[in-house]
Amino acid sequence: MLFKSDGLKVRKLEEKDKYLLAKWLSDPSVLEFYEGRNNPFNIYRVNAKFYNRRDGVTGCIVEYEGIEIGYIQYYQLDDEVKKEYGYTDGKIFGTDQFIGEGEFRNKGIGTLIVTSMVKFLINYYKADRVVMDPQTRNTRDIKCYEKCGFKKVKILPNHELHEGEYQDCWMIEYHK
What we know:
The protein has 176 residues and is an alpha+beta fold. It has helices at residues 18-24, 28-31, 43-50, 79-85, 109-125, 139-147; strands at 3-5, 8-12, 58-64, 67-76, 92-99, 129-132, 151-162, 165-175.
């Protein structure tokens, strides 16, 4: 387990979690902003993308009140990505997440997940900043991130290929 906070528990991804990921990543409401509705995952794709990683990404399962509800990953930005985002120094981490169980959305749990992860990255890894790059059209999640203290830094034009079209993304950051 990485951390606990107010009924929330975040733990590293385990082999058994591939079935949850395949379920969640076949749900159009998750795929609308994460990977694309034209891009559902099966067990083979989950194994290829989320297991045996060598890219420095730590994948985690989010539990709320004992129920597995979602996924979050974090990673330290390398020099190349820092440069792309306009940073020259500092310990900068990125994070991506989704709530896979629909009945847990729109209840403030996303805010709890994001704020808890930010605290973890700052306290445990001594992160100077935490960044994300949500699609500009993902207004619900951006509102959540702003509630968590993230600020919009700049637009990243045509940053992410999603459902066959390049999408603009916001570069947002939490600065301690």
